[in-house]
Design a protein that fits this description.
Keywords: Membrane, Transmembrane, Transmembrane helix
Helix content: 40-55%
CATH topology of the largest domain: OB fold (Dihydrolipoamide Acetyltransferase, E2P)
Pfam families: RseC_MucC
Structural class: alpha+beta
Protein name: Sigma-E factor regulatory protein rseC
Number of domains: 2
């Protein structure tokens, strides 16, 4: 099970909106300035991710929860997203190369195959989107921010 702590942004009608902040790719050290994984994370357009999780227990904004998703469903999702367009690209290029022989048609076939692979991945992803195996679940719930009070003497 892949686990990550997230912060509750809001909770309404049994659905919590959570914010997950990405960490460095390997997570094995704190070398933020010299790590290539950290630099790649910063190149992306968004430095935090939001997700919706169904949970019946009321949550407060700022509360921490641990969410998890099974490795198998994560690997299947990644394979669908990355390998389906890649297989389409290779198949389309090989088919057009065998039928039409010229490089221009091979490139056209590869692009066409990649587009068809992307559309197939999108269609399959829409079918599995609602399945519970592919949804994150709440594993642990931290105390609300208002539950802990420090008294100074």
């Amino acid at each position: 099970m892949m686990k990550e702590w997230a912060t509750v942004i809001s909770w309404q009608n049994g659905v919590a909106l959570l914010r997950c902040e990405p960490h460095s790719g390997c997570g094995s050290c704190n070398a933020r300035s010299g790590c290539g994984s950290n630099l790649l994370n910063e190149l992306g357009p968004e430095s935090e991710h939001q997700l919706k999780v169904a949970i019946s227990q009321p949550l407060e904004p700022g509360q921490k929860v641990e969410v998890g998703i099974s490795e198998g469903s994560l690997l299947r999702s990644a394979s669908l997203v990355y390998l389906t367009p890649l297989a389409g690209l290779i198949s389309g290029g090989a088919l057009f190369q065998a039928l039409l022989i010229t490089d221009a048609f091979t490139a056209l076939g590869a692009v066409s195959g990649a587009v068809l692979g992307f559309l197939l991945a999108r269609t399959l992803a829409a079918k599995i989107e609602g399945k519970s195996d592919y949804q994150p679940t709440v594993l642990q719930i931290g105390l609300p921010p208002t539950a802990i009070r420090i008294q100074q003497e």
